[in-house]
Amino acid sequence: MQFKISIKGCSVTAIVFALSVLCSFAQNKKATTFTKVSPASMHPEHGQLPLDPAVRTGKLANGFTYFIKRNINPKNRVIFYLANKIGSLVETDDQQGLAHFMEHMNFNGTTHFPKNDLVDYLQKVGVRFGADINAYTSFDETVYQLPLPTDKPEVLSSGLQIMRDWAQGALLDSAEIEKERGVVLEEKRLGKGAAQRMQQKYFPVLFSNSRYGQRLPIGLDTILNNFKPMTLSRFYHDWYRPNLQALIVVGDINVNEIEQAIKQKFADLKNPVHEKIRTKYIFTLTGSNNFVKATDPEETSTQVQVLIKRQAHPVKNAGDYRAFIVRKLFNHMLSNRYLELAQQKQPPFIYGGANLGGFLGNIDALNMQVVANPGEVEKGFKAVWREMERLKRYGFTASEFEKAKSDYLKNNENTYKQRHTAYSEQFVGEYLSYFLTGTAAPGIEKEYSLTKAIVPLLSLKDVDTIASYFSSDSNRDIIITGPEHAKADLPDEASINKWITSIKQENISRYKNSFTQKALLDTQPIPGKIIKQVDLDGINATELILSNGAKAILKPTKFSDNDILVKAIAPGGSSLFSDADYESANVAAYLVTTSGLGGYSYNNLNKFLAGTTIASGVFLADYSQGIQAAASPGELETLLQMFYLYFTAPRKDSVAFERYKAETKASLTDRKNSPENRFYDTISAVSGNYSIRRTPPSIEKLNQLDFNKSYQIFRKQFSDAANFTFTFVGDFDINKVKPLIEKYLGSLPATFLHEKAKDLGIQPPAGKITKIVRAGIEPKATVSLKFSGDYDYSYANNLEMDALAEVLQIRLIERLREEESGVYSPGVNARYNKIPSSRYVFSISFGCAPINVEKLIASALDEVDKMKRSGPSPINTEKFKAEKSRTHETQLRANDFWSEYLNDNALNEGDIYAVNDFNTVLEKITPESIKRKANKYLSGNNLIQIILMPQNSNSIK
Fold it and tell me: Which of 16, 87, 446, 556 is the least crowded, having the fewest Cβ atoms under 10 Å away?
């Protein structure tokens, strides 16, 4: 699985194998769609699928490629991607890690933006690093991302200039290179730990001793510490060249103008006179099977992963697209079977499953994984393998297959209906993959037409043949990882092979599909009445009061077609129950959710909802309870039926309770092996003043659970509809929704008690506290600084606290990262709440070398003191205001913002029109007002310092 660690636009692609293999773009590719296609045209012989006709594409004389698409959501915004077909694989032995290092240097001085001028300029126009600007380096590519506003021509022009500079305008100043060494090494330090140490043992097996195993993007310490600037310059001039580059532009722009600007700006890019050959590195399948074990004292679970590799078949023509759909159906049905297996009273594993997807480069893999219960590796492995053997013998059932096809078509239709309001980000990935790998990107209409033509003609045999194609007899890698103390108990290769043979000899029965489609409700509720309607003109919404006291706030929008967000919120939560009942209350919503709903078990409810856009989650938190959900307009009635059942007839399943206890007990066995777990457990306990509700999970706490009590607590907290506010935001007609609200929400029970959350006094203690957690082998430290206290909660104060956090983060990045080269990603966060009492916690956090902990803490606190003495610079204040203003513009046209705003406002009983004061409040924020906030809330009188240090470190006392 690839993940990107981001700050200042930089990231390194780290390769981590946990429970899933690397997924190719085709595996995740959306199959969206319309227009009719004949079966004949689906044959592979009919050539490659055409590129989306809505995209303007071209190639300059120097080989530079461009893709331009106009898309108006979000309005007045554009996304630029600069893609380079080079990554760590092209590095020479003395350049290992320099592809990624070069990515960093493009933010540290270019022709038109020397030193940190690029960072400074982008912040001034409202671009926030990490959240907005980004980049990543992988084996085969380096990609830069820049979103910008388009309502100012000069900003748009500067965006193109930045892209031009990134393509071939890096200055590579020697002093900047030296400063960046520490930053990159700190980024590398963040990835060190149990997973990385075990990877070093199994990567040679996993990568078949290929180039991939020799060129991890993060590189080698010896190279990063000692390379000469000329070595980096050589890499840059060899590989950053136009015939390996493409610019992707998607957004609210004039396509003709952008195309002309690209031709003018990028035509003078030069290819080297003597070009290095861009070798295409591949995996060679030898037919051999490999086995490796890796243990570590900090590992928290035992895992077995089996990868069966085969040549990949990327999606390029209609025949490939057919195979892609077959694969999606295969994975969907297979995941359902493993989900059922996991829902047993005593599951055979903590996690188990299998998936067919892209691996790396030219290879696909069938990946089977199991996270075993302690001491039960054989049982867990056999359970996973047995399902694959069952599938090979009997295939899928006709009912499974027909349901999967129907669900797939529904999903595609829902996606198609959202095509006109799709966000620009949804298109960029397809064009990026088209350029980098040749994966087809035919566009929504073409994909929908293909899907409509292909799916009805598929047969059960099409999916059943996949399992037999991935034979386990060759090109198989088995990787076992686990805690060091369990090393002697882990199986060897002979044992695994014996288990596989025994499964083949078992008398395995056919799979029986227990799913039967039926209505959610056995009887229809008696509707209530809307007794009052209030127009909330200031926010273009409507408030309804129902006869049972429930309140509904409706805000219809056209921000996202075919999408409605629905939430329910009420104060109370687990705070209304004693410490003795806390554990039962804390899991109540989870247990009810995993029991299913109505006449459906959890597994069958998932099958019932498959193919819909319905998503729902019930929660019972510390100080509130509620539901968060989404659906399309045509599915809203079904969703509200689910709301009705959660209030009136939540399902009670003792199997779900026993399963939860078994899974939790298994996960606790080696939990303390992880230094990170011990660190964050300490933060929670100290910040919660050692309340029993904030101390780490344990067997003792698990034994306090009472399922009947959990169920009773859930029923009680969802028994008073008069205490709830329901919010609807999205694509709906109020007059059509009203009858559904009266029927399913107006009929809910009400006690009219209007309970409020109870203040339990669980808050950071007063005074100055320092705790050192000594754990871990690696030479890395993590620092958490928390200021806390009473707070004046209001819309204006909240915005100003956000300003304080942002300007301080800007300074910490400048000082701790840029000036001192001591950290990779310092974080500053302001959290404030009104329920159960007005309090705040202001946090500073970073990772670093243990030897630098005291120095960097001193630097961070020095910046806090400067903020109190002098306030932020006017420039940094304006940077915050520019970013916040630009973000707010986009938020006002987003369903999720309004849904969250209305929900929070209901819980906190705030001024619902406060959002209209945004510009006025923002204008009043000044360096002086931020300085006052710093003095009030960052006095240091209440400061908790918690530091994770290696277990054998003596760097601090």
Answer: 16
User: Cis peptide before 836, with omega less than 30 degrees from 0?
Assistant: yes
Q: Which token pair is 244?
A: 């390996």
Please measure the distance between the N-terminal and C-terminal CA atoms of the chain and give it in whole angstroms.
39
The amino acid at residue 927 is: P
DSSP state at residue 559: S
- Averaged over successive runs of 10 residues, the pLDDT of the chain (957 residues) comes to 30 32 32 30 61 97 98 96 97 98 96 93 85 88 96 95 98 96 96 95 87 94 97 98 98 98 98 95 90 97 96 93 97 96 94 94 94 96 97 95 96 94 94 96 96 97 89 90 95 96 96 92 96 97 98 97 98 98 98 94 94 96 98 97 97 95 95 97 98 97 97 98 98 98 98 96 96 97 98 97 98 96 96 96 98 98 98 97 95 97 96 97 98 97 98 76
CA distance 220 to 225: 9
Q: Is the dihedral of CA 161, 166, 168, 173 positive or negative?
A: positive
Q: From the centroid of its chain, how far is CA 313? A: 27
What CA–CA distance (Å, rounded) separates 127 from 701? 46
> For residue 946, which of 841, 870, 804, 833 has the smallest C-alpha distance?
841
Tokens read off for 193:
């730990």
Query: Helix/strand/coil (H, E, C) string of 907-946?
Result: HHCCCCCHHHHHHHHHHHCCHHHHHHHHHHHCCCCCEEEE
In a 3-state reduction of DSSP, which class is residue 627? Answer: strand
Whose CA is closest to 104, among 868, 835, 824? 824
Classify burial at 761, counting beta carbons within 10 Å of its beta carbon; exposed 0-12, middle 13-18, buried 19 or more. exposed
Q: Burial level of 938, CB count in 10 A (0-12/13-18/19+)?
A: buried
Whole-angstrom Cα Rg for the chain: 29
**CB-CB contact of 356 with 340 (8 Å):** no
Alpha helices in 455-518 (DSSP H): 460-469, 493-504
- Of 783, 793, 576, 786, the C-alpha closest to 688 is 786
CB contact burial 399-417 (16+ within 10 A = b; e otherwise):
ebbebbbebbbbbbbbbbb
- Per-residue model confidence as pLDDT tens digits over 685-713: 999 999 999 999 999 999 999 999 999 99
Furthest CA-CA distance within the chain: 81
The strand ranges marked E within 220-261 are 245-251
CB 247 within 8 A of CB 73: no
Cα–Cα distance between 899 and 729 in angstroms, integer? 6
Q: What angle do CA 316, 320, 323 make, to 5 degrees?
A: 155
CB-based burial, 873-912: b 16+ in 10 Å, e otherwise: eeebbbbbbbbbebebbbbebbbebbbbbbbbbbbeebeb
Reduced to 3 states (helix: H, G, I; strand: E, B; else coil), residue 620 is strand
- E strand intervals along 216-313: 245-251, 290-296, 302-311
Select from 869, 849, 684, 693 the least CA-distant residue to 764: 684
Q: Do the Cβ atoms of 74 and 424 come closer than 8 Å?
A: yes
C-alpha 356/C-alpha 334 separation (Å) is 10
